[in-house]
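Hello everyone,

My group is preparing for a crystallization screen and wants a predicted model to guide construct design. The compound we'll soak is flavin-adenine dinucleotide. Before spending weeks at the bench, it would help to have a computed complex in hand. I've included the protein sequence and the ligand's SMILES below. Output in structure-token form would be ideal because that's what our pipeline reads.
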Amino acid sequence: MWDFKGVDYYELDALLTPEQKLIRNTVRQFVNESVLPVIRESFEEGHLPRSLVPEMGKLGLFGANLKEYGAGVDSIAYGLIMQELERGDSGLRSFVSVQSGLVMYPIYTFGSPEHKKRWLPKLASGDAIGCFALTEPGHGSDPGGMESKATKDGNYFILNGNKTWITNGTNADVAVVWAKLDGVVRGFLVEKGTPGFSAVKIEHKLSMRASDTAELYFNNCRVPKENLLPGVEDLRGPLMCLNQARYGIAWGAVGAAMACYEEALNYSKERIQFDKPIGAFQLVQRKLVEMLTEITKAQLLCFRLGQLKDQNRIKHTHISMAKRNNVAMALQIARTARDILGANGITLDYQSIRHMVNLETVYTYEGTHDIHTLILGHDITGLEAFR
Amino acid sequence: MKVLVCVKRVPDTGGGFKLTSDGQRVDTTNMDFTISPHEECAVEEAIRIIEKHGGSSTVLTLGPEQAQEQLREALAKSVNGAILLEAPDYESWDPAATAQAIAEAAKPGGYDILLFGNECADACNYQVGLRVAHWLDIPCVTGIKALEIQGNKAIAKREVKDGWEVYEVSLPAAFTVKEGLNSPRHPSLRGIMGAKKIPIEKKKLNKREPQLVRKMLRKPQEGRGQIEILGQGVEAVPKVVAKLRELGVI
Ligand SMILES: Cc1cc2nc3c(=O)[nH]c(=O)nc-3n(C[C@H](O)[C@H](O)[C@H](O)COP(=O)(O)OP(=O)(O)OC[C@H]3O[C@@H](n4cnc5c(N)ncnc54)[C@H](O)[C@@H]3O)c2cc1C
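Reply:
Good plan to model first. Here are the tokens for the complex, ready for your pipeline.
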């Protein structure tokens, strides 16, 4: 395996601070040394590479952008972390996105002081794992229609309902569960082992195999009333979380694309057909050039998105544009890379097909590609096309 | 215990490199910078010695303003302090001048242990550590792969064919270390953010006349390796062994 040097055609590195670069390089090395040697096996066997969790905690990758409990890195550094993790595997990046953006962030932002003290240190170190439960069997793109319900009963809330496609579901020590209380969406912290709560692994996935995905069941599950997240009501809560995670996905997708591009480029220089490296043929060159151009455009979107985020000028539609564009481009690049690798491209000896099938999920979760199209369409026309 | 560890900022040539047209330097436009793997182990060893025996560690470099980047990386890994000997023209400093400047800077610090990489990653002169020890008149063990501190003594081991050479020296002493001594840690994000705030002690150096002048660098031809498949499964074993013998590895 060659040493990954990154893809930086437009010298964006020159715009990074020394800390941003050091953070990026640290995660890059971690991925080279600890992730790439084990990821294929995890993917093939269909489980989370759990042994990496404490190491990621030690590095400070969970909640890295939180000022307390985390290192308080800026948005560009945070994005670069996601890029490098997803250069390893989208499943690993998903783990960190969920832990950071969908679990630590809501506890930090909407939680009580007790919630923060109880959970944030453990989640930051990786001693506890979290999951975020919004999607239901009947409600994916339209979470507002959720059927999960909470009813008050003395010092408890009683939760009923099912959640599905929940990343980290079977490994989680705490679930951030969104359910309606008197018709209003609220967030609840449900701990592993709470009677009436169970998680079942979703089997037979052909994508995100190195990530744990589960269906969660709440059957008269009694949650102490203190476990309600006090700081937020209605869909704004989960949507604010999703904005954090989608921001990371926009960067992460670039990492997956870089891995595929680099693999295809190296392969095209070594694979000889008709007495020439295949990279010497015009059609292959065109594919490589288009890959590089798309990656460079996506990097520019990310970089500016990061600046907007740090200046508090970011709109959710900015994030939609980057998520929508970057994931679609990464998926296309993964497919093209797979093509350039020929038959070798269909095996897990190479990375491209793993990235390719993973990106099918990334295209769908956190707002499908088309849902982001509609979000942007709504923003520019003022006309809503969802319903 | 006071430990000083010396590192050198060098271009990261892992992704290939070019020379400048005058053949004097590596063309560093758009290149990343780093320190050698030996020095990474020296930094790690400094941190471990302090973790085990208490005291403080300091990282030093002779180099340009930008070499603060390398110092901060060591600080991020929890080295306690940093010294920059400012020499914008550091690439033209020869090992004798470099060693003299480091020795002068190290003397007032009263360090018990001085750690160096066995060689830096660019010039590979194998000299600075040894020369600093000479200037300070302290013992030096070079190329070590194990180090143990016992009171005011140190046991250092150097790997040789079929075994180890074991040295016992009294402190203060200098050691030049080899990759493999330990496995260097990654800095944590918290460490990186914290290191930003640690002040770096800066000293301006006067240019010294080098005794050793570089004429020119030449880049060797890149060899395109040949891949030879020796066989599959167990049948390949005798051939692999024969090949390793041929290469003198076993
Ligand atoms: C591996 C994996 C991990 C996941 N992790 C989590 C998690 O941790 N937590 C969580 O809550 N969820 C998670 N999800 C769920 C994910 O967010 C949903 O799958 C996603 O929101 C889409 O919902 P759906 O699958 O029900 O598709 P649907 O909403 O049924 O969409 C199906 C198709 O219809 C299209 N469509 C829907 N509505 C419209 C419309 N109005 N106009 C035009 N087209 C429309 C969509 O674009 C899509 O093409 C995960 C999913 C996967 C695959």
